[in-house]
Amino acid sequence: MASIVTCVDLWFNSCVEEQAFCRVFRIGQQSETFVTRFLVKDTVDERLEEMQEHKKRVIGDALDDRAILSKLSARDIMQLFGDIRINGRTKRPYIAMEDDERLDAILPPLPDEEEDPIVQNLGKVY
User: Fold this and answer.
1) Rounded distance, CA 32 to CA 22, Å?
2) Residue ranges, the chain, pLDDT below 50
């Protein structure tokens, strides 16, 4: 079973290289494995490696939930769910929902505020 991978020609798509590297780790591998990449100084190899690293960073940032969420404000997140309006009495923002008869048909009716346990327990300290 192969245990050595030597890359002498870089690929524009680093995933092709990584696939070759990962093949030596297949199920049943018992031997120590080695991966070697050759880069020739002052050639297109250096530029190709820079491009691969840049692409990895961009893709990693795009897929990192923490990075995305850290850039979103509470208002941005609220806007994902609908139009934002300001409550005239409390001056707090809320998500405005259009009255939709189709939703009324599938959702249970809302209880009166006096009967709603969530509303009754707001502000209570446990």
Assistant:
1) 13
2) none
